[in-house]
Amino acid sequence: MLEVAPPPASAGRPAPMVEDAVAEFRPESRALPRFYVWTLGCQMNRSDSEEMAGRLLASGCAEARAMDEADLVVINTCAIREAAEAKVIGRQGELSRLKTANPSLRVVMTGCAVREMDFERLDHRFPAVDLFLRPDQEPELVDRLGLASAQGPVGVTGATTIIGRTAVGVADALSGTRAAAVHAGAVQRHSSVSAWLPIIYGCDKTCTYCIVPFSRGPERSRPFDDVVEEARSIAARGFREVTLLGQNVNSYGHDLEPQPRFQHVRTERWAGRRLELGSKPDLAELIRAIDGLRTADGETAIPRLRFITSHPWDLSDRLIEAMADCPSVCEALHLPVQSGDDAMLRRMGRQYTIEHYRERLDRIRAAVPEIAISTDVIVGFCGETEAQYESTLRLLQAVRYDQVFAAAYSERPGTPATRLPDDVPADVKRRRLNELLALQEPIGLERNRGWLDRTVEVLVDTIVPPRSHDHQDADEPIAPAPRLRAGTEAPGGAPVRLTGRTRQSKLVHLEGPAGWLGSFVDVRIEHAGPYALRGVATSTGAAATAPSANLTA
Ligand code: SAH
Ligand code: SF4
Ligand code: F3S
């Protein structure tokens, strides 16, 4: 039923593997496939999967509930650590068995583990896969499967660039294909409450441990007006929250053309350097424009605006000012530090020092009161001594992050760090990771306890399915199930378990009618754990109504 078409004529280099797949790709029936997208990795991947699923739905395919009910499995891979790739390798046997049971099943693999220009090696490691697509080739999915598409032509990729000694695909075409997908309504968003909005593809940083620049190529910013247009369509559909996505959103715009309307965007200063922005839009300009979208009654059209991820070296004064000025920008910032030691940061190629990093933190904490700060840390990077690792622990104690995402260093083939010995033994990495997480847990608890007895605005985004009621999440504070207060049995049905987030991105458990999904609810916090809060609704909040008809500029 599925035919894998060769790549478009002008699409860079041919993928030899695909030609072989075509030969064995004989239609079993004329029905369109039911597809299942298996997504690993970060929000960027999840956003890309929304676009692929949207394209498949627009071409008439239906979504399967599970992998074993599908005729087409799309695996959107992550390669950030070896374990992420191993997960996909580990399921090749299962996929092969599914293919034996269902001979028309086809498997497509894309995402960051597909980074070679030549797919031959991948063919050996992922034998169940019929078609490989690099991240920059994802818009070709529907055409390459020979599926009639309701959309216009996707255009072609085809640009390559050399990073180190590796040729990678370049996201030159993605801005155009994204805009077309949004225009055609071919993005299947994961939630009706909160939307992702990619603003910049790829990464220009050279963090020595990181595979992303090799998987996703150099940075390409989406045109300013395209992003604002997508935000407008997100607002018109009634989403309450938007998260701007990029590997380094803080460098948004540097590759765009200067324009007279941005002539006020000139020099930028922050600790350690001065930058000439030269009349190009930056992230500060972009969030001001999205924040400026208003309903007819003057409310922000999208009440909550977030962005991820911010590289500390590019966190500008202009951005901090915009965050402080814009009412929709949430009081939360993910600012990955990676290590608390300057020598390690140099070896990691992170560009900033701890002094610079902390200067940025002080500035943002002064400008945006009660901002929640989270970070990423790598332990056991090449040559990390016990004393250097302890500097990271001291940093955590001093900064008091709301949340820390920590990982043990995992060597990635082809990255600059492979030239350094990966010399911290696995058991030492593990011990450091566990110690660090144990140190952070009471800090997270202390930060969360600061919210006890306060009333916070929660955007309800999840109805907890009944079967997960049976056991208490490790994350949840141990507490008796809360009762709804009198007056909160609002229209919308019997109380169920709900979760939502505060503006500081704190996870809050509460009870209320399912009809509260997508609403802002005032919640009095009664219990705090290290990773989540629990509270009782004191109001039914604002209903999730689409402000479509009322949108102004
Ligand atoms: N662009 C984002 C992060 C993307 S990857 C940024 O710069 O912050 C997410 C996190 O994975 C990184 O912050 C880092 O902590 C971790 N990571 C990346 N490469 C890794 C590796 N080789 N081993 C272990 N952790 C890694
Ligand atoms: Fe990787 Fe560094 Fe780019 Fe983040 S900024 S994606 S860690 S290279
Ligand atoms: Fe993984 Fe690629 Fe994201 S490597 S973390 S899916 S950018």
Plain-language structure description:
It is a single chain. The protein is α/β, with parallel strands linked by helices. It folds into three domains: 23-163, 3-Layer(aba) Sandwich (Rossmann fold), CATH 3.40.50; 178-446, tm_1862 like domain (pyruvate-formate lyase- activating enzyme), CATH 3.80.30; 455-539, no CATH class. Helix content is 29%, strand content 20%. It has helices at 16-24, 43-58, 82-89, 92-101, 120-125, 141-144, 174-183, 212-216, 224-236, 283-291, 317-325, 342-348, 354-367, 386-399, 426-449, and strands at 34-39, 62-63, 72-77, 106-111, 131-132, 160-163, 166-169, 194-198, 200-201, 220-221, 241-245, 267-270, 273-276, 304-308, 332-334, 372-379, 403-408, 455-463, 495-501, 507-513, 520-528, 533-537. The strands form seven sheets. The protein has a five-stranded parallel sheet, with helices on both faces. Strand 4 (106-111), helix 5 (120-125) and strand 5 (131-132) form a beta-alpha-beta unit. The protein is globular and about 60 Å long. The structure holds S-adenosyl-L-homocysteine, iron/sulfur cluster and FE3-S4 cluster (F3S). FE3-S4 cluster is lined by residues 41-42, 44-45, 78-80, 111-112, 211-212, 215-216.
Secondary-structure map:
Blueprint: H1 16-24, E1 34-39, H2 43-58, E2 62-63, E3 72-77, H3 82-89, H4 92-101, E4 106-111, H5 120-125, E5 131-132, H6 141-144, E6 160-163, E7 166-169, H7 174-183, E8 194-198, E9 200-201, H8 212-216, E10 220-221, H9 224-236, E11 241-245, E12 267-270, E13 273-276, H10 283-291, E14 304-308, H11 317-325, E15 332-334, H12 342-348, H13 354-367, E16 372-379, H14 386-399, E17 403-408, H15 426-449, E18 455-463, E19 495-501, E20 507-513, E21 520-528, E22 533-537
Parallel strand pairs: 1-2, 1-3, 3-4, 4-5, 8-11, 11-14, 15-16, 16-17, 20-22
Antiparallel strand pairs: 6-7, 9-10, 12-13, 18-19, 18-21, 19-20, 21-22
The structure holds S-adenosyl-L-homocysteine, iron/sulfur cluster (SF4) and FE3-S4 cluster.
Residues 41-42, 44-45, 78-80, 111-112, 211-212, 215-216 line the site of FE3-S4 cluster (F3S).
